[in-house]
Fold this protein.
Amino acid sequence: MGQTPTADHLRNHLVDLIRRDVRLTAEVERVMRKVPREAFLPGIGLEEAYADQAVSIKDNPLGGPLPLSCASVPSVVAMMLGQLDVQPGDSILEIGAGTGYNAALLAELTGANGHVTSIDIDSDVALHARTMLDRAGYQQVHVMERDGLIGAPENAPYDRMLAAVGLWDVPATWWEQLSEGGRLVLPLRWRGQTRSVALIRHGDNLVSHGMQLCGFVPVIGQDGEKTTALNADDTIRVIHDEDQAVDAVALRESLSTTTGIEVMSEQRIGGEESFDGVWLRATAADDRVCRLQVLPEAMAQEPLLRPAMPVRSPALIDGDSLAYLIVRREGADPDRPHRLGAASYGPQAEKLAQDLIAHIEDWGSARTAVPRLTVTPISSDAVTGGGHVITKRESRLTLTY
């Protein structure tokens, strides 16, 4: 009979798995092998605690699909810690206390001469984090019940700021709390997607130093991202920004009364090859980009051409017409058997499909290219160097390839 794996064994095995996909610095690897994740997840079995998955710690009281708070996916935690690049002695602000596990990792990274402040708007979550940190021996972490959009100015300035919640906008208050040359890592949402972006402060500008696709529970208090149903039972939706006009009535009519068309690009991909860069590339040039979400029941019931990823596919919307990304198996190339294209509905179907094809081809010309993102306070006249601008309530995003 085999022995039951110990927490140390499972923890090291998890880190070994993460190393296959995430480039870990020596320090991030060290602290992830040291800090016991199970200590922050009481009532959760060791196997679940050391699976590479999120663990809910507080359900949404409104019954929504996302929890109010959770322990983030360990591989995502590792990726974001790498982006944050904590140095010994850093003063750090964490927005979204979660279980307290992230704060413990941050405390290990900054060391005895550093300081970690962790804040959460939910009193239950803040209390849980405080309790777990105390039990695990991290009494030095300062936990506060506080609206993350306000921050914690009493302990500012911070060398590093880490948001463990999805942000639609960058609050103006955060500029005042981040040191010049300091680094902010946050899951930022624009045009229906979320990217973990590392931003370095240069005066009024926050300039990106890399970004990665991710998904996070949205922060409480920002409502600039909207969801619009495109059928009667709300199983086909578009997720879009508040500056994008979506005519739900016209789009429903087009989806229900017109026949969709398919137009294929010249771009082929392998079975494991990512094509999320198409979405990112399109957002740097086109204000019509949004997210199409088709739930499984709609795929079974609606005569809809299958999207590339039904739950999250990039789309273009223009009045009464919709185009979205598709993937079709085509050709005999064993290395790249799939071809990218566009499905489209409505009176402008052909034009919109061709516009999406153009974005696919642009991505195909430099598949690994990542744009520079510059975030500037809405009140600032700082020069960003040109690019495609997306205006939010408190900030402007400028994307440049």
About this structure: The mean pLDDT is 94. Residues 225-365 form one domain. The CA atoms of residues 132 and 145 lie 15 Å apart. The longest strand covers residues 178-190.
